[in-house]
Design goal:
alpha/beta; single chain; 622 residues; Rossmann fold
Length: 622
Amino acid sequence: MTRFVNGAPPDSGRETGPRPPLLVAVSGPDHTGKSSLVRALAGQLRQRGFAVAAVHAYGCVLCRRFPVPPRVREEEEPGGTGAGGWAQRTARPERRGSWFRRAHAYLDAGELDLRIAVARRAVSAVARGRPVVVLTDRGPLDGLVKFGLRPDRGAARRFARTAGRYDLTLLPDTLPDTLAGRGWEQRTGSPAAWWARHRDWAARLPRVVRIDGERTAPEVAAEALERVLGAVRPAPRPSGPRRRERVVVSIYDDAENSDYRGGGALVVEKLARRLAEHYEVTVVTAGRSGGSVRRHGVRYVRLPVCRAGPRAGQLLFLGLLPFVARRIPHDVWLESFTPPFSTSFLPLVSRAPVVGIDQGRSAEALWRRYHLPFFLVERVGLRCYRHIVAMNEADASAVRRLSPRADVHVIANGVEPRQLDDARLGSGDSILFLGRIDTWTKGLDLLLDAYETARPPMELVLAGGGTAAEERRLGQLLAGRDLGVRLVGYADEELKRRLLRDSAFVVLPSRHETFGLVALEGMSYGKPVLHFDLPALRWMRGGGDVAVAPFDTTAFGERMRALATDPALRRRLGRQAGLAAQHYTWDEMTGRYLALTRRLVEGPAGARRPRKDRRVPWQTAP
């Protein structure tokens, strides 16, 4: 059976014909909500135009007739006089059971194969060209755990062959106490032992993905849907040469824009370089002069709007984007939202899919700051988008309320993986603020008030650049205050690494954030992060962060003093921060963008609506 890696066909493929059905299992111990998750996934996939067959494969005919699988009844067996027999059978091969038990495993595997084959044929017959997905609430992973099979047994190899036919196995991971709270029957063994066996076999089988089952049911279903959509295989293409699909990414911010140079520019650079491995990529951004350059295999087109100033430049950039989208041929457009309106109504002018990336949706914050109703335009614009990426669950929930028809994905930012240096955990001689100089949004006035009140025994370092007006405003805040504050200015990569390495902890006093990339970078160095408890920053919870009530400068100052005077506390929190940061790598996060882009570029024609090549490329690079 032909396999595709992450949904992409091999370059040398010459297959023709309909798209093969996607086979997905939801596995795990009882009470993990497998059946309800399958039902939720089936409904959401049908809404997106898929033909879906949901197979509730509880077990074979013997499993349904006998609640306890037939095996040798000995002391401490499940169904006997105790609950420890299952673990004993796992540890002692000589007590695995009789030939009847092994035959039962073969029967179970055979009936699962039969159910899958029947479901595939039935749903394919009524698909009418739609992509087909077969969902099962039990997979080979569950059979291997249930029968306690050794890898060298024939029945285990039979289940493993079936597992090889699955395109994806979802494992909603929960804590043992969670299963106990959902009605786990202790006579079947401890939840911890069951989870240990599931995780052990999951590491041996292909394409098993663990998702966080501790979250609410809608959040679990949203993550599961994202994984399934990312695994959707494209329709086989005819043989012969073909052009590379074209992907455009637009963002106002840029690494060479001295007024901003924020985290969004870094995210787009990482994303563009990853997409350029598979597609022809163009980045549309702002500049002081027009033109295009090619860097790292990516074409950068700059719109000459920065001479108008930072605020007017953003408005000009938003106004020009629809015209540029009509001139640059593309198969998918990824738009990083730009203040103050965030959206530029690109889906109304593009015939290709447009993905809105919520890195700068700040209309609500600007309303609180300037009392100008930018949010009215934003709310209308968001309803035009069918695909939106949010950085965190709080913003994703807000976007779903504003645009109920949109397919909302949560893709966090990333960081370069680093090994924790135990010798440096808890060390450092300064408190670091690193980010764009924007007094109100980044909360620099709140930070200075807290620092002046608490007077922690450490120097406060402010690193970052901003507009001339914002830097003057910061200077005015510092004037007349006798504070131990050092201004560093814009920090390039080398200086940023040195500041993070030498700091004791990082402060993030923002009034508004969409993710907080600086916090993640600090965590990767094993530094605790002190911040206000904003919904968008709750991804850090339990990851070495210290959160205080929003905009309570007294509490913020007290926590600053506590961290500055307690190396042991910084060491403990720093280790938690470093371990948490290892789950946010650029490879993982850009891979999710790649899976989404691949699904839109190579997905069903009705969903893609490809743009025709009616004009020559605009601003063609030399």
